[in-house]
Amino acid sequence: MKDRLAILGGEKAVKSDPKDIFDWPIVNKEMEEAVLSVLRKRSMSGIDITKEFEEKFAQWHGMKYGLGCNTGTAALHCAFFGVGIGKGDEVICPSVTYWASCLPVFSLGATVVFADIEPDTLCIDPLDIEKRITERTKAILVVHYCARPADMDRIMKVAKKYNLKVIEDVSHAHGALYKGRLVGTFGDASGFSCMTGKSFAIG
Ligand SMILES: Cc1ncc(COP(=O)(O)O)c(C=O)c1O
């Protein structure tokens, strides 16, 4: 029966229950023990495990620094602050993303200018970025949307030409590669959400 498609009565190639994809993240005994060990030490804040995670995450990306934050939104807030976004500045963001990619821009007194996305990647369109640049533009926010890397070569070229900072929102694309290089390593700073629904889900 192996040479017949399942739809024609052959053996099924995928045997797992389709509803299993909604059981996420996978939680095993090892994870439960790791959490319990932190609780048992009664030191849930500013502890070694966070520092170890920061170091390993930075190392994985070949970066010098990693900073653990309480949410991806806070991580992006740090990134925007870190590159100096402030009152009166404009940040060019993709018009399709989760709202938290852009919201920290307002918290810093700056404003968001939306750019179009590309039909094949659903990520920000480098040609449209260029049309949105004004004398107030300070940075470009790139979201590697639904695990599809944005066209970083063309985006970095525009950023260089106009002397703009680049922030990458890697919340949908942990471990994704653009031309063999990890996304999140192209711009000036990156933020990663690790909330429950993400592929790298640690809360
Ligand atoms: C693209 C994107 N950016 C940022 C965030 C914000 O992350 P968090 O929910 O961890 O604050 C999310 C979360 O869903 C997201 O999908």
Question: In words, what does this structure look like?
Answer:
The chain is of the alpha/beta class. The chain has a domain at 71-203: Type I PLP-dependent aspartate aminotransferase-like (Major domain) (Aspartate Aminotransferase, domain 2), CATH 3.40.640. The protein contains 6 helices and 7 strands. The protein has helices at residues 29-41, 48-60, 72-82, 103-107, 126-132, 152-162, and strands at 90-94, 111-115, 137-143, 165-169, 177-178, 181-182, 189-191. The strands form 2 sheets. It has a 5-stranded parallel beta sheet, with helices on both faces. A two-stranded antiparallel sheet has the order 5-6. Residues 71-73, 97-98, 100-101, 143, 169, 171-172, 193, 195 line the site of pyridoxal-5'-phosphate (PLP).
Ends: how far apart?
Answer: 44 Å
Taking all Cα atoms into account, the compactness measure Rg is 20 Å
Unreliable residue runs? none
Task: Let me know the CATH homologous superfamily of the domain at 71-203.
Answer: Type I PLP-dependent aspartate aminotransferase-like (Major domain)
As laid out across the biggest beta sheet, the strand order is 2-1-3-4-7
CATH architecture of the domain at 71-203: 3-Layer(aba) Sandwich
**What is the mean predicted local confidence, pLDDT?**
94
Instruction: Let me know the largest β-sheet.
Output: 5 strands, parallel
Helical region count? 6
